[in-house]
Amino acid sequence: MANTSEATAAPLLFDRALLQTRQSRARKLGPAMFLLDRVAEDIGERLQAVLRDFSDVADVWTPGDLLRGPVRDRFKSATHVDPDGSPREALPLRPASLDLAISGLAFQFVNDLPGVLSQIRRALKPDGLLLAAMIGGDTLTELRQSFAAAEAEREGGVSPRVAPFADLRDVGGLLQRAGFALPVTDLDHLVVRYDNAFALMADLRRMGATNILFERRRTPTRRATLLRMAQIYSERFADADGRIRATFDVIWLSGWAPHESQPKPLKPGSAKASLEAAVKRAPKT
After folding, report:
1. Is the pLDDT of residue 6 over 60?
2. Higher pLDDT pick, 82 / 212
3. If you compute the radius of gyration of the chain from its CA atoms, what whole number of angstroms results?
């Protein structure tokens, strides 16, 4: 992926207008909120550990309400930035206008993540914080493998169905590339159990997280392929009680806009601090 300041545009993997449509449908269906609820709770705990005050806050593209209850009361102003469906992914944020930028479960659908991170970096005041969570790692690896096996068997080929996800090391590198100081990433690994693959797919629809790849298959999946996928899923990824497992990896990322009060960065490869430790910084004096 290329930075928006570079001559070469980032490749368009995701149809963000379709993402808006899918998220709107999810709200009408009654959204599946368990992942966002977990992220919102973790955001609150992580911000409570930050030993400083934030005044002006922006929530970038979270598909729901990330700042809840006492967390919201800490801030003078809190703005929710909604996606506009544009492939440009431009953020309406003024330079050096924010103390804190947060985002929950949105960055995995960004075409130009380096560009978006750079925009957020410019919008932060010196010593401002970005704290975000995105889907990544081995998320839905079971569904991906089951669909690939079923399509290869029933249709003689495999179509892209599950979005490519960034890994932990990639995200850390992107934070550095965007100019963040003290970048830290960590991973929250969740395994959710379902009665069957169709129950999982229903939850994905209610998350607004079904396939939005531009290269997605445009014709309906054959019934025989779907049934075979569910059978393979059950054969390979079920527990003793017959319920299947679904992996969700949540990557947490944080970084600070540079400021002279910050400690010097460690040499590459020597960092040992967790994300929680990185945000437990004393107030500026």
Report:
1. no
2. 82
3. 20
Tally of domains within the chain: 1
| CA 269 from centroid of its chain's CA atoms | 25
The residues, ordered by sequence, that sit 6+ positions from 252 with a Cβ below 8 Å of its Cβ are 42, 46, 131, 132, 133, 185, 186, 187, 188, 275
Which residue segment(s) compose the domain that 265 sits in? 16-140+163-192+248-279
Residue type, 159: S
Give 283's DSSP letter: P
Residue 59 domain-assigned?
yes
> In angstroms, how far is CA 85 from the centroid of its own chain?
17
Question: Mind listing the pLDDT tens digit for each residue in 132-175?
Answer: 999 999 999 999 999 999 999 988 777 766 777 899 999 999 99
Closest CA to 178 of 96, 124, 116, 109: 116
How many beta carbons lie within 10 A of that of residue 124, not counting itself?
Answer: 27
CATH number for the domain that contains residue 37 = 3.40.50.150
| Average pLDDT of the residues of the chain | 87
Identify the residue whose tokens are 């930035």: 81
What is the sign of the dihedral through the CA atoms of 81, 84, 85 and 89? negative
In-domain check, residue 5: no
Model confidence at 252: pLDDT above 50? yes
Question: Model-level pTM?
Answer: 0.84
Q: Are 143 and 35 in contact (CB under 8 A)?
A: no
Number of CB atoms found within 10 A of residue 223's CB: 8
Determine, yes or no, domain membership for 216: no
Please check whether residue 42 lies inside any domain of the structure: yes
- Please give the Cα distance from 65 to 190 (Å, whole number): 21
